[in-house]
Design a protein that fits this description.
By secondary structure, the chain is of the alpha/beta class. Helix 6 packs across helix 7. The chain starts with 15 loop residues before the first strand and ends in a 7-residue tail after the last strand.
Length: 409
């Protein structure tokens, strides 16, 4: 496994990562590492490859989502059901720093690629395992997608108007939260490895990643028996903070829940006497009268456009914003100034892709190469392992490897 060197210094340069997942959670974790200079070799099934290649909108024969998810990676196409392919994985894992997988628990073990086997070959290997319910517990063998993790983790119950059917977040939030927790785990394990010289297994469950973001949900229940319910666009127990309809039909999101911010908000909407009401000086009093406050703010926004509302509140230092569509995002000057909208040349056409976060001052992330075609890097990877062209041809003839799709990138 050789390192692809980006044009700028990279925080994770020299880190060798083997990605064995598919779709979202595992590959998103690997993508995050790749953005900061890690060499990521993605193992895909010969032929179709990762199913994400065919999800949602297509440009030619490939999903545009794939280009965002798999930039900076190399593709090695192996049939992991074959013993010869499993032997290749063991050799690659022997030289890797990190292995990422998001199969159902027991899948790696069935291929003879358990953590015990791989870490016996490479004691320094860090293994991230992402699954719906984790590697242990009574639910471990259930199939789990991000939306199920969102529901079990407590998020889905809160995403609705009171009395209405809970709705899902319009993106794969459960998968993404699990991926980011996985990246945190990898970085923690790398730090610890500097002391011990040993790798370890990181067990991330989708539902636990979501549950970890549920703030005071559990202690409120344990202490008061309170079951937080859906509150629509409001923030339960925090006031005033809501979405308010404006004259032009748009909504302004206004967060006036800080004590001093609340006073500025009331003066901005022409209600100075409310700002001076001692019962409303702190959050608890405002929560008790949240209906009254929302009505006052709503009356004010109803006579103004979203732009007028935001201009007035910005002048008073009150946090407020509009609800962005992706068109708003793509055209927003702040997104552009922060490098969050990039234009890349992909297969002869321009494509907008998200920028890289977080922002590092000395070793920023970079977009080095576009997402690979299935098996694009099979031959280079196998050559670096020491296999001859004749051996690679033989593996290809047996169906173990797809190696004839190499392109110049």
């Amino acid at each position: 496994m050789s390192q692809i060197t980006p044009p700028n210094p990279s925080a994770l340069a020299g880190l060798k990562v083997l990605e064995m997942g598919q779709l979202i959670a595992g590959p998103f974790a690997a993508k995050t590492l790749a953005d900061f200079g890690a060499e990521v070799i993605k193992i895909e099934t010969p032929g179709a490859g990762d199913p994400l290649r065919n999800w949602r909108m297509m440009k030619g024969d490939t999903s545009v989502w794939w280009q965002a998810q798999s930039r900076n990676k190399q593709s090695l196409a192996l049939d992991l059901k074959r013993a010869e392919a499993q032997a290749i994985v063991r050799r690659l894992a022997g030289a890797a720093d990190v292995l990422i997988e998001n199969f159902r628990p027991g899948t790696l073990e069935g291929w003879g690629l358990s953590p015990a086997v791989l870490q016996a070959l490479n004691p320094r290997l860090i293994i991230l395992r992402v699954s719906g319910y984790g590697q242990t517990g009574p639910y471990r063998d259930r199939p789990g997608f991000g939306v199920i993790g969102e529901a079990m983790g407590g998020l889905r119950h809160l995403t609705a108007e009171p009395g209405r059917v809970p709705v899902r977040v319009g993106v794969s939030m459960g998968d993404t939260l699990a991926a980011l927790h996985g990246v945190i785990g990898i970085l923690l394990a790398l730090q610890e490895r500097q002391r011990s010289g040993l790798g370890q297994v990181i067990d991330v469950a989708l539902y636990e990643a979501v549950f970890n973001c549920m703030e005071s949900l559990l202690p409120e229940y344990g202490t008061f028996g309170a079951v937080r319910g859906p509150a629509g666009s409001a923030l339960p127990g925090i006031a005033p903070s809501n979405a308010y309809l404006c004259r032009d039909g748009g909504y302004a999101l206004i967060a006036g829940n800080g004590d001093s911010i609340f006073r500025r908000l009331m003066k901005a909407i022409g209600q100075p006497q409310v700002a001076d009401d001692p019962q409303l000086a702190q959050n608890a009093g405002r929560v008790a009268r949240v209906g009254e406050l929302d009505a006052l703010i709503g009356q004010w926004t109803a006579s103004r456009t979203v732009d007028e509302v935001l201009t007035a509140l910005e002048a008073q230092g009150v946090p407020a914003g509009r609800i962005y569509t992706v068109a708003d995002i793509a055209q927003d000057p702040h997104y552009r100034a922060r490098g969050m909208i990039t234009t890349e040349q992909i297969d002869g056409h321009e494509m907008l892709l998200p920028g890289i976060v977080p922002k590092l001052s000395r070793t920023p992330g970079t977009h080095v190469r576009p997402a690979p075609r299935v098996g694009q890097d099979s031959r280079p990877v196998l050559r670096r392992m020491g296999l001859s062209e004749e051996q690679i041809d033989e593996l290809e003839a047996l169906g173990v490897v797809a190696a004839n799709q190499e392109v110049t990138s």
